[in-house]
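Predict the structure of Transposase.
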Amino acid sequence: MAGLYERNELLDEATMRKSGWTPERRAKQAEAIRRWQPWAQSTGPRTEEGKARSSRNANKGGAALDERLREVRLAVQADHLRQAELLLTRLRAMGL
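Done. Here is the predicted structure for Transposase.
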């Protein structure tokens, strides 16, 4: 892993110089973030709207999938209905 980091650092050296992010500055920023620990200060959503929005974070297209499943079910039901009507017509034609 260290080798990968070193290779990325070498590849990005020109970019870091342009942006002002030297390896020293990056290390200093990383240490500051470790001390600050913003992830430990999170309280989560406080309003009902925020809680509702947060509860949908993991929903990745479930509504679209539900709609597609409903369409497929309706198509299958319609096909079954057509087959049943055809069978009934044949039975009536046979006099049953």
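The chain has a mean pLDDT of 84.
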